[in-house]
């Protein structure tokens, strides 16, 4: 739909194109453009501020303000209305700018006579490089179309600003000497270690032609590229490695849906109508998206915006006739990207791609889910990697310790290589020990199970020798899709898990979303304190249809096989009763429909909210098993956010209070013969596992790589003397018993790795 202002926009763009192509220095041409823009938009002032090093916005050109202010007026990002536009990376318009609380009056500009102001960020590669502003003497309400036109014009101006107005090194801050070794901290999106050569992900093709010669031609080019891209995605979906029911497929299907999003397509078409070429229009929408993304805090929305970015890159490649041309990788490549779409990752040669480093990202983003399925270590939120890593640099991705080494010294490389060899040897040794009984020296048997959430996790269950799946997190297929998977889709997924588990027991945990795992179809209001908010069973009890559908799918997938269902985040027994009631009703309904009854139905709860432990009498009568979710439990016991890096070392899972709490629970469960397990991270740490066994746990569930080390610990532990020792130290006032327990292990030959 052409907007009202497209005629103005197109005329103005045509004139700007002539100036851009004309003679004179960048600054002279910039001066001419502000004049044209003021005239085109019937404004009294048009000014261009350019961002310089140190987050300073400097007035570079103006039509209307006092000429002496040029290069003299400077504002910090965030200061004044211009600074606000830069800080928020979004367009703003104020009919009465001078009375706005953020207005910063600069007398040298002579701006006191101008009432209204409209400004847009000048964006380049998703970064704000300046601000373009118009002002009027009258109190003017700028229209949507005028803002849109100014944005389009700002895109053309970005070329001038980036093309030599300020020295290149000022445009993007560079930390330190590019040739020195660096260690960059980030966030683990997938564990593991990889060493290789840096390859910078070239997602963007630079757009040469900005202003359209002929509108129809550009619209047709856009339509053609869109169709080609849709076809390419269909081919990807039909390719052999899209396992039915796998997460890959869900992710790409969702992505394919986005590629048909009418809003996105409409915005690009509108930008073409405004006078841009197809590439420039895609780029404009892409830049707007990026800028918007930097303002959004909701992780789900941020991740979906990332998918749109990926699509924009793909579309640009189609327009440039370069679709399907992927970057060649060296044999051991570490890909460096600001962010990456799921399909983009799959475009690379999986045999050569060893690791991934992203400037942005979160564990629930689509590309992280795919990387986990492919077993590629990933570090995200590694600040400034794109400017600090050069192509061909040697890079170590240390997904286990949340860091990236760039151009590391020989000693570091040697240490990591030796570590990699050791790891490989250790993995082989653990695999060889997979059938060794998990029994302490004095004969106590311990059950080890795996935590899983991806079908990929199940591939490793067999070689780990685990007894079964102690925790199956069902939320990932829900997160990978654009809408709630229906009963049939869920039945297929759970059926696949049964198949892959090959008769080993599985504990299916019902949907545990909310908190940081927001689903688009449950748009809850933003929460102050999401970890304690509307999440998990609280959501599914409020949306019982969702829980019933999931339970129905589980009963159907079981096909008469044993079924274990576990409810998460139960805070009081009455919640369990409600959930159990839904399960009973679904079971009755399914049996009436002729679905075979599960051979054995076991119903359990996670214990991760402390309050529940104070209702053990009632609780233990109602459940077949309990599993402690120590990740959440510990954060609630200490009132300490589990995701806050500033608090991560403050409280310890081996604090006397945690162990005392758990010991009481062990005793209560034992007295009523209710099986108790623990499925939080601590169960997979050998020292923690030793303490848990010491206080009476006989079953633990952990991520696959921990099974081998914990088995070794158990087999080298003599339980009786250790229990006596633990009994002695449990009441100590220390903040943690960790050091004492480590020393005990060392002195008594317990293998804690
Ligand atoms: C836990 O809280 O310990 C747990 C296992 O659940 P999640 O980590 O999925 O919240
Ligand atoms: Mg939990």
Detailed description of the structure:
This protein is an alpha/beta fold and about 750 residues long. Among the domains are: about 5-175, Beta-Lactamase, CATH 3.30.450.40; about 180-410, Phosphohistidine domain (Glucose Oxidase, domain 1), CATH 3.50.30. The protein is about 45% helix and about 15% strand. The chain has an 8-stranded mixed β-sheet. β18, α21 and β19 (about 600-605) form a beta-alpha-beta unit. Bound molecules: phosphoenolpyruvate (PEP) and magnesium ion (MG). Phosphoenolpyruvate binds next to β16 and α23.
Key phrases:
alpha/beta, 8-stranded parallel β-sheet, 22 strands, about 15% strand, Beta-Lactamase, about 750 residues, Glucose Oxidase, domain 1, binds phosphoenolpyruvate, binds magnesium ion
Protein topology:
Blueprint: H1 6-21, H2 26-40, E1 45-52, E2 56-63, E3 74-76, H3 80-88, E4 92-94, E5 116-124, E6 127-136, H4 144-162, H5 168-171, E7 182-185, E8 187-190, E9 193-200, H6 215-238, H7 247-258, H8 262-273, H9 278-293, H10 299-319, E10 333-337, H11 342-347, E11 353-358, H12 366-374, E12 378-380, H13 385-388, E13 394-398, E14 403-406, H14 410-432, E15 447-452, H15 455-459, H16 461-464, E16 469-473, H17 475-480, H18 487-501, E17 506-509, H19 537-542, H20 544-558, E18 563-567, H21 573-593, E19 601-607, H22 616-622, E20 625-628, H23 630-638, H24 656-671, E21 676-678, H25 686-694, E22 699-702, H26 707-715, H27 719-729, H28 738-747
Parallel strand pairs: 9-10, 10-11, 11-12, 15-16, 15-22, 16-17, 17-18, 18-19, 19-20, 20-21
Antiparallel strand pairs: 1-2, 1-6, 2-3, 4-5, 5-6, 7-14, 8-12, 9-13, 13-14
């Amino acid at each position: 739909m052409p907007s009202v202002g497209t005629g103005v926009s197109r005329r103005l763009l045509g004139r700007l194109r002539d100036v851009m192509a004309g003679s004179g220095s960048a600054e002279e041409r910039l001066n001419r453009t502000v004049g044209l823009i003021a005239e085109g938009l019937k404004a009294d002032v048009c000014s261009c501020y350019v961002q310089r090093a140190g987050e300073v916005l400097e007035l570079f050109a103006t039509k209307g303000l006092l000429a002496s202010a040029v290069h003299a007026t400077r504002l910090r990002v965030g200061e004044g209305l211009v600074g606000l536009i830069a800080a928020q990376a979004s367009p703003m318009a104020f009919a009465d700018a001078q009375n706005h609380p953020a207005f910063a009056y600069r007398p040298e500009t002579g701006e006191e006579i101008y009432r209204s102001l409209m400004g847009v960020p000048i964006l380049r590669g998703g970064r704000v490089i300046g601000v373009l502003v118009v002002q009027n003497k009258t109190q003017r309400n700028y229209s949507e179309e005028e803002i849109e036109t100014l944005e389009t014009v700002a895109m053309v101006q970005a070329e001038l600003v980036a093309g030599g107005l300020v020295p290149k090194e000022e445009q993007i801050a560079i930390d330190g000497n590019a040739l020195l070794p660096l260690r960059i901290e980030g966030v683990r999106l997938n564990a593991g270690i990889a060493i290789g050569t840096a390859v910078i992900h070239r997602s963007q093709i630079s757009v040469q032609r900005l202003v359209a010669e002929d509108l129809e031609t550009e619209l047709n080019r856009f339509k053609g590229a869109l169709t080609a891209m849709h076809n390419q995605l269909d081919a990807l979906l039909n390719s052999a490695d899209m396992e039915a029911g796998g997460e890959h497929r869900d992710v790409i299907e969702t992505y394919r849906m986005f590629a048909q999003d009418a809003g996105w397509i409409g915005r690009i078409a509108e930008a073409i109508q405004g006078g841009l070429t197809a590439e420039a229009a895609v780029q404009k929408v892409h830049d707007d998206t990026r800028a918007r993304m930097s303002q959004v805090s909701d992780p789900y929305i941020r991740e979906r915006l990332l998918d749109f970015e990926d699509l924009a890159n793909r579309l640009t490649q189609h327009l440039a006739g370069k679709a399907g041309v992927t970057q060649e990788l060296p044999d051991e490549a570490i890909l460096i990207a600001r962010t990456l779409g799921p399909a983009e990752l799959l475009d690379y040669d999986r045999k050569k791609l060893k690791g991934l480093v992203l400037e942005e990202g979160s564990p629930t983003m689509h590309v992280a889910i795919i990387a986990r399925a492919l077993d590629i270590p990933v570090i995200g939120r590694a600040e400034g990697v794109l400017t600090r890593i050069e192509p061909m640099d040697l890079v170590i991705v240390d997904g286990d310790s949340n860091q990236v080494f760039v151009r590391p010294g020989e000693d570091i490389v040697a240490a990591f290589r030796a570590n990699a060899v050791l790891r490989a040897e250790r993995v082989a040794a653990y695999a060889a020990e997979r059938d060794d009984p998990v029994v302490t020296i004095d004969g106590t048997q311990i059950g080890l199970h795996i935590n899983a959430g991806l079908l990929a996790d199940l591939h490793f269950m067999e070689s780990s020798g685990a007894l079964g799946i102690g925790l199956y997190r069902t939320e990932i297929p829900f997160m990978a899709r654009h809408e709630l998977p229906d009963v049939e889709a869920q039945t297929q997924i759970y059926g696949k898990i049964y198949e892959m588990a090959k008769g080993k027991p599985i504990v299916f945990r019902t949907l545990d979303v909310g908190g940081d795992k927001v689903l688009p179809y449950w748009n809850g209001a933003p929460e102050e304190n999401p970890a304690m908010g509307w999440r998990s069973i609280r959501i599914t009890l409020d949306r019982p249809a969702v829980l019933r559908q999931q339970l129905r799918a589980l009963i159907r997938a079981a096909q008469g096989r044993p079924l274990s269902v576990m409810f998460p985040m139960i805070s009081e027994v009455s919640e369990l009763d409600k959930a159990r009631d839904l399960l009973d009703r679904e079971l009755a309904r399914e049996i009436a429909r002729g679905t075979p009854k599960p051979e054995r139905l076991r119903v359990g709860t996670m214990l991760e909210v402390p309050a529940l432990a104070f209702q053990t009498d009632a609780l233990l009568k109602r459940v077949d098993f309990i599993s402690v979710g120590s990740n959440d439990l510990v954060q609630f016991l200490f009132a300490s956010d589990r995701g806050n890096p500033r608090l991560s070392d403050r409280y310890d899972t081996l604090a006397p209070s945690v162990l005392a709490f758990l010991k009481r629970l062990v005793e209560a469960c034992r007295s009523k013969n209710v099986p108790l397990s623990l499925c939080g991270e601590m169960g997979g740490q050998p020292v923690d596992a030793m303490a848990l066994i010491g206080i009476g746990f006989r079953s633990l569930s952990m991520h696959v790589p921990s099974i081998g080390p914990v088995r070794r610990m158990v087999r080298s532990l003599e339980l009786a003397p250790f229990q006596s020792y633990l009994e002695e130290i449990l009441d100590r006032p220390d903040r943690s018993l960790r050091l004492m327990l480590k020393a005990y292990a060392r002195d008594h030959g317990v293998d804690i790795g």
